[in-house]
Amino acid sequence: MIESKGHNIIIKTKKGEYICRASMKNILETLGEKNIVQIQKAYAVNIDYIKEINKGIVYLKNNEQYNIGRKFKKTVVQKYKERFLKW
Question: Is the pTM of this model over 0.70?
Answer without folding.
Answer: yes
